[in-house]
Amino acid sequence: MQHGAEEKLGDGLIARWVSGAHLHFADDEARKSYQARAQLIVDTIRLRDTGKIPVIPAATQKFAFDYVPVTFREAMTEFDKAFAAYVRQYEDTEFDAYVGPEFIFPAGMFEALAWNRVRLPGVHLPDDKSFQFVEAEYMKAEEYDEYLDDPSDWILRKYLPRLSPKLEPLAQLPPLRNMVAFFQGLPDLVLAAAENPGVVDAMKALQASGAAVQEWYDYLGRIDQELGGRLALPHLLGPMAHAPFDIISNYYRGWRGTIVDMYTRPEKMKALMERLLPWQLQYGIDGAKSLGHPIVTVYLYKGADGLMSEAQFEEFYWPTLKKLLLGLVEEGLLVWVFTQGKYDSRLHHFKEIPAGTCLIHLESGTDAFLAKEVLAGSQCIEGNVSSALLATASVDEVEAYCVRLAEVCGKGGGFMMDFSAFLDEARRENVRKMIEVAKRYGRSS
Amino acid sequence: MPQGLTEAIVNLRMDEAVTLAQRMLAGGTEPLAIIAESSEAMQVIGRRFAAGEAFIPELIMGGEIMKSISQAVMPEGDEPDTEGAKGTVVIGTVQGDIHDIGKDIVVLMLRIGGYTVHDLGTDVPVEDFVVAIKQHDAGIVALSGLLTLAFDAMKSTVDGIAAAGLRDRVKIMIGGAPVDENVRAYTGADGWGGDVGRAIKLADEWTDGGA
Fold first, then answer.
1. Which residues in B have their CB inside 8 Å of a CB on A?
2. Is B185 within 8 Å of A392 when comparing Cβ atoms?
């Protein structure tokens, strides 16, 4: 590499994010405290031995709501209540970052569109239960070629109509690829958009969902100001990107359909993953730019141990995920790789990504001590404190486990304390103990 | 060519397996004999899975091949006899949780392992479990859940089964990624599993392997 190589996107974004330039701080102390936390997070991902263990939340949900209390239904429809709950929770628990408020999606948006990929509290489920996503076959096995040929057309005229009965009429729109010369295609489009009652209704449904989305964005801005500017907590969750395999299995074909495709049309699947890859990479980069956030989060779903063999992981899952991670890192960005399920046998793959660029989340099913052994000197790890432990065990049991994590995984840096999954049911004293152990370790070393 | 069919299923060659089954049918083999042959092949996959030599994709793909063969050789409307000899299991994802992937695989594992399984689906109310236990005279109840929010629903279901006077008649297992011994103790269940392979082992322990 030559000297004076041009600055990468990520370098500028990291400096900006650490400075907190996007926030109005309550006072100088808040600014300093925010900057120290953000710098500690970056340094820990970079594997610098700071002598401290940052403590972060994978995301809090019902755990936060119980502070008011607020139901899931209320949180998703009356954002002031979600706001109050998160502020109280983060005032009471001394994390080094915040995550959670952004996952309280606007129920009004889904309801206006009768979105069938989600089951909502107060509509399909009791008010106090979490919203949940439905995984179904939204793309037919024989539609790979159609998708590869004209993805946006498939999304507009096949996918959206299947996701929402209100958007079914979009299937009647003419293909946009017909609009080529002079005004060719325009009359058909105008007729469909303005005169077809179904399409007109679909547009109205989209408009109706807009108010909820606007309210949600306002709430996210306000809460970032409150938690960041006043409580000095960096927002760890920024832009997102998805592993191409997970897009196919979670959002298009369903797990069953995906498995059948792995055996019966592997080449089509691989072609689609390669097609999705540059878009996801760009999505992550564009998100980082627009949010001014240097850490791209990639949630992993179907690559876990047991969900497929190592050979299948290497053939289907890892190649495009690896390219995605390398592409983001090439831009100077950091990546929060949020593994879900047991990942013991896959951990070594993250050594193929440049050292000190990824923050690897571990659920409780993964052996954190093995992860430390495998990834020491390569990538930072975090997580692993089981939800069941926090919900049902004694404070002493929580302390014993967290001390072991701090001593073994925290050694030499490259570790953050965090729970295993989104936090709903958990005893407050257990969560406080987890935080206290992380802070104590920092002071004692 | 029964060995050909078994081999094609075990190696997950769907088109070939279905074609072979159709040829056997045309050649005069009884549909139920073809289904039995296919079930044996599935048991081979199940044993490989239990030994850690096969993974969930193999199980699901095997199940899909079985389904296709069954559709190809059974007269329409006729369901193959899937009564298992080892015991009867009532299974469902508890109320408030709609996750079904893990549960569906446990159903498949238990069926190929020789159990009669009544699958109540997802988001199952306590009373539906109670009714199903009585109706099918089940000896084993399997409660599934992926969310930590499911812990309370699992506990309510165990309590509801006890309140209906059925607790002594059934063994109850809970399963799902966040479940552990602490959760088992909290819910009052008899056993727990954090992965799908554990269910069949527990069931076999409780029924003495069906012996």
1. 12, 14-15, 54-57, 60-61, 64, 95-99, 101, 123, 147-149, 151-152, 177-180, 182-183, 185-186, 194-196
2. yes
CATH (domain of A268): 3.20.20.210
- As given in the structure block, the two tokens for residue B37 are 């042959």
Does B148 sit within 8 Å of A312, measured CB to CB?
A: no
Contacts of A135 in chain B (CB under 8 A): 101
Domain membership of residue A133 (yes or no) is no
Closest approach of chain B CAs to the CA of A145, in angstroms? 21
Number of domains in chain A: 1
Distance from CA of B76 to the nearest CA of A (A): 24
Q: Decide if A174 is inside a domain.
A: no
Min Cα distance B191 → chain A (Å) is 15
What are the beta bridge partners of residue A98? A235
Contact B84/B115 with Cβ under 8 angstroms? yes
Position of tokens 């299991």? B89
Rounded to a whole number of angstroms, the distance from the CA of B40 to the nearest CA of chain A is 21
The length of chain B is 211
Asked if residue A130 belongs to a domain, the reply is: no
Sign of the CA dihedral running B191, A61, B104, A264: negative
**A193 has pLDDT over 50:** yes
| Chain B residue whose CA is closest to A128 | B96
Angle at B18 between CA B13 and CA B22, to 5 degrees: 150
Instruction: Please report, rounded to a whole number, the percentage of residues in chain B having pLDDT higher than 70.
Output: 93
CATH class of this structure's domain B2-73: mainly alpha
The residues near B157 (Cβ < 8 Å, ≥ 6 apart) are B94, B95, B126, B129, B143
How many other CB atoms are there within 10 angstroms of residue A308's CB atom?
Answer: 24
- What pLDDT score was predicted for residue A179? 83
Reply yes or no on whether the pLDDT at A1 is more than 50.
no
ipTM of the complex: 0.84
- Could you say which of 3.40.50.280, 1.20.1600.10, 3.40.50.1820, 1.20.59.10 is the CATH number of the domain covering B87-210? 3.40.50.280
**Rg of chain A taking only CA atoms, in angstroms:** 23
The predicted model scores a pTM of 0.91
**Alpha carbon A415 to its chain's center:** 20
> pLDDT of A166-177, one tens digit each?
999 999 999 988
Helices (H) and strands (E) in chain A, counts: 20, 7
In this prediction, residue A107 has a pLDDT band, given cuts at 50, 70 and 90, of: very high
Point out the least confidently predicted range of A225-229, A253-257, A321-325, B35-39.
B35-39
Supply the pLDDT for residue B80.
Answer: 53
Chain B residues touching residue A388 (CB < 8 angstroms): 148, 151, 178-180, 182-183
Mean pLDDT of B101-105: 86
Q: Which chain B residue has its CA at the smallest distance from A132's CA? A: B98
Q: What is the pLDDT of residue A208?
A: 94
Query: Across residues A114-132, what is the average pLDDT?
Result: 93
Interface list for chain A against chain B, based on CB atoms closer than 8 Å? 62, 119, 125-126, 129-130, 132, 134-135, 255-256, 259-260, 262-264, 306-309, 312, 341-342, 363-365, 386-389, 391-393, 420-421, 423-426
Does residue B83 carry a pLDDT above 80? Answer: no
Q: What residues does each domain of chain B span?
A: 2-73, 87-210
